Model the fold of this input.
Amino acid sequence: MLKKGEALQKEISGSAANNRWFTPKNYDQAIDQIAAKWLDKESLETWAGNYSFPDLAPQKNIGLVLAGNIPMVGFHDWLSAFVSGNNALIKLSDKDPYVLPFLVSQLEEAFPDLKGQSQFVERLTDYDATIATGSDNSARYFEYYFGSKPHIIRKNRNAIAVLSGAESGEELDGLAKDIFSYFGLGCRNVSKIYIPERFDISAFMEKMHEQKELVLHNKYKNNFDYNHTLFLMNKVDHYTNGCLLLLEDPSLTSRIATLHYEVYGSLEQLESELAQDQDKIQCVVSSLDLKSLPVISFGEAQNPGLTDYADGVDTVDFLNSL
Done:
């Protein structure tokens, strides 16, 4: 169903030409994750089995406004609309306009009963509910246009990592994936690390330097150079290894090619502080046992399962409630 044949590769190549951030490697990662985690038969049956779907419930028209920060980021919303028996009216991002329509067409060929259940539209009209994903700025626009009907509107979120300082090389390799996958553009990419006192930053930066091939990508390199110059001109204290800029900053959101850090004293105090920012945190990566925060393993931030709902909002439950 999702075999990367010549036709799919043609769509991926077109997307890479349209948006230089969306490399074939990044598409391969996204499609492999979808196939392994979201389209596995057993996983789908377990997921769908968590819900009760009324047999006679009328189909609703669900407007899906998709983000374009990483490849195929709206696939889970489309799958939720399909599983709940609703029609999907899909407003694609102009940053990712080719691959999802192709994959939906392939599914419709394999399962003709699906035809007509998904429509790709330039403008949303005649919808019963909306799921829209974007930035804090676009969320205000979404609220204005879609606020009168049932909706899920997602804003900026970021992933964070809480380190002990005793992470293994394998765990740090996983953290590198969490930071650098998709050039760090996803809401599940780690944009800030929390480190204990006496943390060996030099060793950490040396380990992250293994991702140095990133600077061969011109858009990433341009952002790295721009931000590095900005920090130098403004005399911002920072560390650099040639492919990553690390600086102490309270913000959860970091620029492309940068990573923020903050030193914590006690885990109890840190958990209390993070609890106040839960509406800004997509997921927490750590090997530590954080009592009040669910954590995921290093290397798994960009490998969510079917029940790892964006912003913690169960989209299927929302759709069933309409």
About this structure: The first strand starts at residue 61 and ends at 65. Residues 6-156 form a domain with the Aldehyde Dehydrogenase; Chain A, domain 1 fold (CATH 3.40.605.10). The mean pLDDT is 94. The chain has two domains: 6-156, 158-285.
